[in-house]
Amino acid sequence: MDPLFLAIETAREAGALLLAHAGGPLETEQKSARGDLVTVADRASEALIVERLLAGFPASAILGEEGGVRAGASDERWIVDPLDGTTNYAHGYPMYCVSIAYERAGEVLAGAIYAPVLGELFAAEKGSGATRNGRPMRVSRSARLYDSLVCTGFVPAGYERNGENFARLSRVARAVRRDGSAALDCAFVACGAFDAFWEFDLKAWDVAAGGLIVREAGGTVTAIDGSAYTVDGGSFLATNGVIHEPMRAALAGE
Questions:
Q1: Each residue of 104-117: pLDDT tens digit?
Q2: Domains in the chain: how many in total?
Q3: pLDDT bucket at 35, cuts 50 / 70 / 90
Q4: Of 136, 158, 177, which one is at a domain's C-terminal end?
Q5: Which residue range(s) make up the domain with 191?
Q6: Secondary structure letter of residue 102 according to DSSP
Q7: pLDDT of 45 over the 50 cut
């Protein structure tokens, strides 16, 4: 079975499940920090995703936000966020998504991000470009940070780590957004809606699919200090490539 096809179909099915749960009473639990929530919808979505992925790739490992690590018997791994933007979801704000990435021998080869309320499906396969609802997409052509719309994220408990950067970029970019879904922020960089996105302390499930999609759309992805990006590195900077160095310098306070 083709990993990208499975990722896309599974993301769509999980998105439909999230829509079915939305609008009703939701029990929420706080996880590690204030603003880091989980709901029954997160867990139901992940259970569905794991079932579908293992049916297609029974020997693969799975790293899921709500289920932790499942060891596999091959060099393949699925990296899953069943509901990225849980706080948004719990409050009826439509900026949330399902993110699924396929990794083999430590390299992400396919990824899909589906925002069910928006009806937007972003996908990429290494070496084949990126698509938005099946059509090829590219990053923006913005050449100046001054003209750029950029985005970031942080949980309330982590504001101090990023607050100075938020203020600094607010002074030098056209505007800064904080939408609360790292995977969807990556997708919006890939399609040119955002010119850049940065965030600290991310997990692999936040950026595995999004990082690939940005690169396949022609963008650049590194750690915030400009060093090499890894899915488990936490520090993340994605741009259209043209403003990557100005973003790195601004975030470094240069």
A1: 999 999 999 999 99
A2: 2
A3: very low
A4: 136
A5: 145-251
A6: E
A7: yes
Are residues 64 and 49 in contact, defined by beta-carbon separation less than 8 angstroms? yes
Report pLDDT for 155: 77
Helix (H, G, I), strand (E, B) or coil at 105: coil
- Please report, in angstroms and rounded to a whole number, the separation of the first and last CA atoms in the chain: 48
Can you tell me the distance from the alpha carbon of 36 to that of 80, in angstroms, rounded to the nearest whole number?
A: 17
Residue type, 101: A
Could you tell me if 72 and 60 are in contact, meaning their C-beta atoms sit under 8 angstroms apart? yes
Closest CA to 56 of 75, 71, 78, 82: 78
What CATH number is attached to the domain comprising 63? 3.30.540.10
* Whether 69 and 178 share a structural domain: no
Contact (CB, 8 A) for 202 and 177: no
Angle at 46 between CA 4 and CA 80, to 5 degrees: 45
Each residue's pLDDT tens digit, 155-172:
776 788 888 899 999 999
Judgement on whether residues 167 and 117 belong to the same structural domain of the protein: no
- CA–CA separation, 172 vs 35, rounded Å? 28
How many CB atoms are closer than 10 A to CB 209? 35
My answer on whether 112 and 161 are in the same domain is no
Q: What tokens does 248 get? A: 């790195």
Last residue of a domain, one of 83, 116, 136: 136
Do 126 and 36 fall within a single domain?
Answer: yes
pLDDT higher than 90, residue 1: no
Find the CATH number of the domain harbouring 167: 3.40.190.80
CA-derived radius of gyration, the chain: 17
Q: What's the pLDDT at 159?
A: 81
User: Which ranges constitute the DSSP H helices of the chain?
Assistant: 3-21, 40-56, 86-90, 159-172, 182-190, 204-216, 244-251
Same domain, yes or no: 30 and 124:
yes
Closest to 218 in 3D by CA, of 131, 114, 88: 131
